[in-house]
Backbone:
């Protein structure tokens, strides 16, 4: 990856993080931790990997993203806003009454949202259905499903995993945000889902493990995923919950609570400083 | 003797016709293709039949994903698993995004028979009624089942189609002008209205005959679409006959009886008595014997009709 692209993606991810903080601060609720852990991924997907056009959000040949961990909606919304689906300022309406930005994504409210999600374990099945539709109709699109690590405790995920492998859906990529924190504590202490890659491999998936905050590894992983034939791909991303905001990093309490005014100022100050540094590079 | 056909047979046969008509129509099943009668579709259109295995929750999600890409999707299982086990998936992945998925739920109600309470779903209509935008159709016979499946296929949005395992009398001689959301007055009467759905429609017609012999004039209305309910027809029957008896192969809680009661309370309050499964689970036995044991009979409709007429005074 050339340094210009890497710098551009870092800048986009930094702005996505600002959108996450703006949204959850104005909503006085929401899920910043798991949104920040997938911000780098959202930047890569929407600005490099996926074939999408904000002018034609319902084009049947577009690639699809299903945010199966729907509570990370603030990161998705911020990525969509930066991509041009709607105004960045609208992120401040997150979770407000009559806003298009519902607490969890709704495909009929928000341009660019491909599936309504929020009840964990369900998005992956819908993504499998989309990938199957492409296979059955010869459509060229690819489908990306983003799952939480705690979400893997839902049995439906493994129903979907079994089906996707059985039907050889090589146009499907599941991205697992392995930050090892769920609401009640560490995933590995509550009810461990590890080893994640081995489980998917046993279900018949091609698996890749990578650092979910490293764009070079992301580039390699997605390139490798495109070469896989006859099986779906699971990419286990090792991430840090709350990544990018110093006092939120790896702190479980930021799963589902919003920053107050003071924390908001501090977080934005950090992110603005990051942005400045990236812009001068 | 009246011909008897199970509504699930009509479902399976109609899917084949629809498969010829719509090349974007898919049928999903969860390892029950022989019982739900989707197996014939599988033979006719193997590329558009998907067996999801014994995983109903995942099947509903796959149906949603397929529908989101512009397809008409029929997802089939027993009522217990389609509406019961997969309720969250039907609500959140199909109902909330209002996707074009038709749930073909067979083996509804007590007439499952020998398999017993775990498989006799008397709660599905109640569950599905609470999902905004869900159309619910419970056809009375094989002719109506065909019309319902055809109507669902050409109407955008989520549907819950309820079919039975048991072969039931064919009421309609031929196809008629079936309209979603419109009840059908099958026989007129002035003392009481018998509002029935599914296999209880034939029993309501038999009850009308028995009442006639006792000098009582009963109107019989077939409500195939439980949601949206034909409120206008229900209100008119309440006003014109002054008493109503509902009859359904479903719990008296949350089904047709509840829907009619709620409608009448808001338009023209009159006595409404409900024939259905009381607040209890079913049990094993031959289907007809089970129906009789739980009071899903013409005789019970007659009793309730006379009581309802008494209450008018």
Residues:
């Amino acid at each position: 990856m050339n340094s210009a692209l890497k710098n551009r993606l870092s800048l986009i991810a930094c702005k996505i993080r600002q959108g996450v903080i703006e949204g959850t601060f104005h909503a006085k609720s929401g899920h910043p931790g798991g949104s920040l852990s997938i911000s780098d991924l959202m930047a890569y997907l929407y600005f490099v990997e996926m074939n999408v056009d904000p002018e034609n959000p319902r084009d049947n040949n577009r690639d699809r993203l299903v945010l199966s961990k729907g509570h990370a909606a603030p990161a998705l919304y911020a990525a969509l806003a930066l991509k041009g689906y709607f105004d960045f300022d609208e992120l401040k309406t997150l979770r407000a009454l009559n806003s298009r930005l519902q607490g969890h994504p709704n495909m009929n409210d928000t341009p660019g949202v491909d599936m309504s999600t929020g009840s964990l374990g369900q998005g992956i099945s819908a993504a499998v259905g989309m990938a199957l539709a492409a296979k059955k109709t010869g459509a060229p699109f690819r489908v990306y499903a983003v799952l939480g690590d705690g979400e893997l405790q839902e049995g439906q995920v493994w129903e979907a995993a079994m089906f996707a492998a059985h039907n050889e859906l090589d146009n499907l990529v599941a991205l697992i945000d392995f930050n090892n924190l769920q609401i009640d504590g560490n995933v590995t202490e509550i009810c461990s889902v590890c080893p994640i890659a081995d489980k998917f491999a046993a279900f018949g998936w091609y698996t890749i493990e990578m650092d979910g905050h490293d764009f070079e590894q992301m580039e390699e992983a997605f390139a490798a995923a495109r070469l896989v034939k006859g099986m779906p791909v699971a990419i286990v991303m090792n991430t840090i919950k709350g990544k990018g905001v110093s006092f939120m990093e790896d702190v479980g309490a930021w799963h589902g609570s919003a920053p107050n005014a003071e924390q908001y100022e501090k977080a934005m100050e950090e992110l603005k400083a990051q942005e400045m540094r990236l812009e001068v590079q | 003797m009246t011909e008897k056909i199970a509504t699930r047979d009509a479902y399976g046969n109609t899917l084949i016709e629809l498969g010829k008509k719509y090349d974007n129509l898919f049928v999903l099943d969860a390892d029950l293709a022989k019982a739900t009668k989707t197996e014939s579709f599988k033979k006719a259109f193997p590329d558009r039949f998907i067996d999801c295995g014994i995983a109903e929750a995942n099947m509903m999600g796959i149906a949603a994903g397929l529908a989101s890409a512009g397809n008409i999707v029929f997802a089939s299982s027993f009522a217990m698993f389609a509406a019961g086990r997969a309720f969250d998936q039907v609500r959140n992945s199909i109902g909330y995004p209002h996707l074009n998925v038709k749930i073909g739920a067979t083996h509804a109600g007590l007439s499952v028979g020998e398999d017993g309470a775990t498989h006799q779903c008397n709660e599905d209509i109640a569950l599905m009624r609470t999902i905004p935008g869900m159309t619910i159709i419970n056809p009375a016979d094989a002719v109506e089942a065909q019309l319902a499946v055809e109507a669902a296929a050409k109407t955008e949005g989520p549907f819950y189609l309820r079919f039975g395992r048991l072969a039931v009398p064919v009421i309609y001689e031929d196809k008629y002008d079936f309209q979603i959301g419109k009840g059908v007055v099958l026989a007129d009467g002035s003392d009481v209205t018998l509002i029935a759905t599914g296999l209880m429609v034939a029993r309501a017609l038999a009850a009308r005959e028995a009442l006639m012999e006792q000098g009582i004039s009963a109107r019989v209305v077939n409500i195939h679409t439980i949601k949206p309910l034909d409120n206008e027809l229900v209100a008119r029957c309440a006003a014109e006959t002054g008493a109503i008896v509902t009859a359904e192969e479903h719990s008296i809680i949350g089904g047709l009886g509840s829907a009619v009661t709620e409608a009448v309370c808001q338009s023209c309050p009159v006595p409404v008595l409900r024939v259905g499964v009381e607040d209890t689970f079913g049990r094993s036995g031959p289907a007809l014997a089970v129906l009789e044991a739980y009071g899903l009979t013409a005789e019970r409709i007659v009793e309730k009709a006379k009581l309802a007429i008494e209450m008018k005074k």
Observations:
- The two ends of chain B are 39 Å apart (CA to CA).
